[in-house]
Structures are given as structure tokens and as C-alpha cells.
Amino acid sequence: MTKLAFERPIIQRINAGLPSKYGMSHRLEPLSHIDGTPIKDLIGEFGSPLFVLSESTIRKTYKEAHRAFSSRYPNVQFAWSYKTNYLNAVCNVFHQEGAWAEVVSGFEYDKAIANGVPGELILFNGPDKSTEDLQKAIRNNSLIHIDHFDELYEIIHLSKEMTERPKVAIRVNMDTGIYPKWDRFGFNYENGEAWDALNRIMANKNLDLMGLHTHIGTYMMSVDAYRIAAGKLADLAIKLERKHGHVLKYIDMGGGFASKNTLRGAYYPGTDTAPSFDDFAEAITSVLMSSDIKPDHLPMLILETGRAMIDDAGYLVGTVIANKRLADGRRATILDAGVNLLFTAFWYEHDVRPVQPVSDQTEDTTLYGPLCMNIDVIRGNVMFPLLKKGDQYVIKRVGAYNNTQWMQFITLRPNVVMLDSKGNPHLIRKREVLETINSQEVMPEHLKQFKL
Amino acid sequence: MVKIKKNIAISDSGFVFDPGSGDSYSLNPSGLEIVQMIKLGKDFSAILEAVTEKYEVDSDSFERYYYDFIATLAQLHLTEPDGKD
Ligand SMILES: Cc1ncc(COP(=O)(O)O)c(C=O)c1O
Q1: What is the CATH number of the domain that holds A396?
Q2: Which of B16, B61, B75 sits opposite A388 (nearest CB)?
Q3: Which residue out of B2, B30, B60, B64 would a mutagenesis test of the A interface target, given it has the greatest number of A Cβ atoms within 10 Å?
Q4: What is the CATH number of the domain that holds A180?
Q5: Do A331 and A199 belong together in one domain?
Q6: What's the gap between Cα A125 and its chain centre?
Q7: Same domain, A266 and A155
Q8: Which residues of chain B have a Cβ shorter than 8 Å from any chain A Cβ?
Q9: Can you tell me the distance from the alpha carbon of B14 to that of A155, in angstroms, rounded to the nearest whole number?
Q10: Nearest Cα residue to A366 out of A323, A306, A316
Q11: Across the strands, what pairs with A334?
Q12: Is there a domain that residue A447 lies in?
């Protein structure tokens, strides 16, 4: 005779009065499969915890984003923001879909080149480009987005020594009505600095001014901010044509679209509040199309969408280590993945689900990671079903920034697999071992021996 | 042996009412089953036997859940203060 499944016994206070912020009945549906593949089998084969990326979700999201813009504007180009997730397999899915590369360091630049991206299809952003980086980018005809005047003058200087003509754009920062203003990067629009920089570039005979760039912020929930930004870049483009007869090749609106994750402390879930690609596309393209830019001079529209493009495709799956009762009676559940792997737990109230079916019963639970640190909280105060030691969990929407901002701290980073379009797993980053870390260390001769 | 306070009302659906404090609680099905056995005067080993016979759970795990559960009942003042197992 087969026995019945056992659930931990619990008792909880019934709170009369106000419902919790998501309403009274809040049921967390288990998630047992990703793209048709059982999570249990993935953990069995590749270990726990484990990052799982869905190739079909990446492609589907990309196509959705591309369609939103290309159905409204004649010339659209996406560039994959490497910092968001630069695992090579992820980058190559985007490159196969047609995305160029957007990089912000020499390391990311080299990664894009090593992946086979042609130099002239790399956008080089950021305040930190070394002289060698700039020389390389100029030699490869990459698109250099200038961040500040020191960089502009260095490029002018290099252009005199080199045979290739630097292909440049400037990054513009501006007031788009959102707070905080991102004025750290690029040249300011309102105080005339951006216009000044453009005039200096036009006055120089060695540089090719290709476009204008802005990146107004991240996790933006306002499409109006994009409308304002597109309008200001269009104004600069019109002034350039009017004064210098110069027609820009592109306007790059950067990234920043909110993903469907819920920000910490937000009242409504991100699935309800994040504008769609269509909303962002409508705001940006309608401004460009109705601007005074001549129809046959409409520049290519470049987008560097990061988190909204990849968040949904990433999952972090793992195993419950233990349960505890906190001093105030609340439940504490300890997971085998902490903030070292899930950096975005600092920003988001991640959607954590059980893998195996559970009953409707939930308990006020704090989900902790395994690190010996107070800050290691994956989710605070969530009504969570009863998971036992050894049960599995899955954290949804972790595709953006975690595989780049994760820390090697206390534990080693785990395997990362990608599920292909048929749901077959491919190992795309091997779990770290002691040797991975120790191979970078050098022991001075006099410290090699000790006696205890 | 643990004893549930006499004045605590427990319904067959797992609804618990403490007239002393005015608080109400809900038990999940396994919690209810265990509380009912405690009310019948069964001790830990009898409850263990009944549960492991019927459910897919090993005795070590059950022991942990059981004592955690009892500790919670005590924290909520639903058991007699001198009740020892
Ligand atoms: C220049 C630039 N482009 C694109 C991105 C991607 O942004 P997001 O992930 O918010 O779309 C960033 C992120 O910081 C960035 O700095």
C-alpha cells in the first residue's frame, strides 16, 4: 500500500481585518518544469543550486521587442547589453537573432570580439576606456560613445596618429522628469554641453560623427521619460543638419525598460506595472516620426535593452537546507542559494516557487540564503508553503545581472545550463572548483610552510 | 505529556479558538490530526506510530516537525504550561 504524502503540521493565527497587500487568498503555484524539462532532473544531473536559462524565452522576448519597434519605425537595431548577462552562449543567442554588441569595458569589448562580433557592430559605452581600448576600437571601426571631454580630446589626439577615422557618438544626459537624474554619464543637454561637444566634433576633420546616445536610467516604469528623451535627441539631430548639413546615422536610446520583476517595497507586482515593449516603442517612435527630421533622413533607431530582454529567461533552482523558527515565532527557511548568487535580491521581491506540489497552506516565512551573514535574505516575510529539508524551489526572472554581478563569496558559483528549443539542457558555464580560485593565487616562498 | 488547554475549541475543519485571548487560528490537516491525537491522550510514540504508518515520512523527520509544532503551540499558549512529553 502506498502511503500518503506528509506535510509538516502547522498552526497559524487568523488575522481578522485588512487583507495582505496581494489580497487574502494568495496561492503560490508550484513550478515543476522549465520548457518541458523537469527541474528535479536538472538538479539531479547538474547539481544544486543551478542557474537555468531558457533559449526559447530569450528568442521569444527578442522577437517581441523587435516587432514592437520594427512595426512602427523603418530602421531598428538592437545591441545586446553585455553587462546584463555576458555568458557567451547568451550573447550568441542574441547575435543569432541579429543583435549587435553593447559593451562598457575593455573586457566586455574583447569578449564581443572573441564571440565573433564584427568590430564595426560594437557600441563602446562607458566612462572607462583606456588608451589601448580606444586604439583597438578605432582600428576596428567600432562605434565609440564618448562620455566626457577628456575622452573626446584623447580620441582627437589618437586620430592624428592613426590612419583609421574614429567613428563616434556622444552620450547625452538630460532631464526627463524622473528622479534621480542620471547626470553622471555623458554630456548634459539642458546646459548646452552636449551641443558644445557636437560642435567640437564637427569642427574636427578627423572624426566621423555617427550618432547620438542616451541611457536615461534603469528599471524605468515611465514611457513619458522616453518620449522626452527621444524629443531632445531629435532636436540635436535637427540642429546638426541645420547648422552643419550633417545627417546622423543613428539615435541610440539605450536600455532601461522595466522587467516584470517586482521592486522591493512596491505595492503592485511588476507583472501588472511594467509597461510593454509596445508601450515603450510607441512613445519613442511616435516622437521620432513626428519630429522635424526629414523622412528620408530618419536615423537608425538603436536600443540597448538589457533586463527586460533577459530577466524572464533565467531561473535559479535549488534545495531547501533547513527550517528554523525565529524568536518571534515566524518561520525561517534556509535555501542553498544566497545573495552571493542572487544579487538582484537586493532590488527585487523575487517570485520564489516550490517545485513539488504543495497544499494551500502557507506560513509567514523569511527565505534566507546559506551565507553566515545577516544581509543574506532572498525574500523577507512572504506567505510561503511548507517546504521541508530537501524540497526544491525555483526563483523566477533572474536572467538579468545575476550571472555578471554574482560574487565568489564563501561558496563557489554553480553550474549554468541553457535549455535549447527542445528543452535539452546544455552546460554553458561549469561550476567553479577550489582550483578555479586557487589558480589565481600566488603563495610567497616564505609562507609556504607552517607547523601547528 | 503535552496537554491542550481545556478551554480551547477545535473544530473538525481545523479552526481553533482561544476564548482566553480571543485569538483564532487555523491548523493544516496534519496539524489537526496531531492535535486530535494529543486530545485523545496519545503520547509522542503513539502519534509517531500512527503517522508513519499512514504517511510517507521517516521517524527522524517527523520527530523534528512534531517538536517544532509543539513548541509553536506552546508559544501561542494553547498547551498547558506544565505539559511535558
Ligand atoms: C549604456 C547602457 N546601455 C544599456 C544598459 C542596459 O540597461 P537595462 O538593463 O536597464 O535595460 C545599461 C545598464 O546599465 C547601460 O549602462
Answers
A1: 2.40.37.10
A2: B61
A3: B30
A4: 3.20.20.10
A5: no
A6: 15
A7: yes
A8: 16, 23-31, 33-34, 51, 53-57, 61-62, 65-66, 68-69, 71-73, 75-76, 78
A9: 75
A10: A323
A11: A322, A368
A12: no
CA distance A141 to A237: 22
Give the pLDDT of residue A20.
46
Do A273 and A132 fall within a single domain? yes
CB-based contact B70:B79 (threshold 8 Å):
yes
Protein residue with least CA distance to atom 10, ligand 1 = A256
Examine residue A281 and state whether it is found in any structural domain, yes or no.
yes
- Which grid coordinates are listed for A390? 530537501
Asked if the structure places residue A293 within a domain, the reply is yes
Q: What is the tens place of the pLDDT at every residue in A21-69?
A: 444 445 688 999 999 999 999 999 999 999 999 999 999 999 999 999 9
Tell me how many residue pairs between chain A and chain B have CB atoms under 8 A apart. Answer: 73
Q: Whose CA is nearest to atom 14 of ligand 1?
A: A218
Q: Kindly list the residues from chain A whose CB atom is less than 8 angstroms away from the CB atom of residue B56.
A: 2-6
A241 and A114, same structural domain?
yes
Task: Show which of A296, A311, A326 is a domain's final residue.
Answer: A311
A389 domain residue, yes or no: yes
ipTM for the complex shown: 0.92
Q: What backbone torsions phi and psi does residue A328 show, to the nearest 5 degrees?
A: -90, 10
Helix intervals (H) in B1-85: 29-39, 44-54, 59-75
Domain coverage including residue A116:
55-311
Looking at the structure of chain A, the number of domains it has is 2
Q: Of all atoms in ligand 1, which is nearest to the CA of residue A125? A: 1
pLDDT digits (tens, 9 = 90+) for A187-218: 999 999 999 999 999 999 999 999 999 999 99
Q: Verify whether ligand 1 is closer than 6 Å to residue A364 (CB atom).
A: no
Q: Indicate the pTM of the whole model.
A: 0.87
Give A91 Cα–ligand 1 centroid separation in angstroms.
15
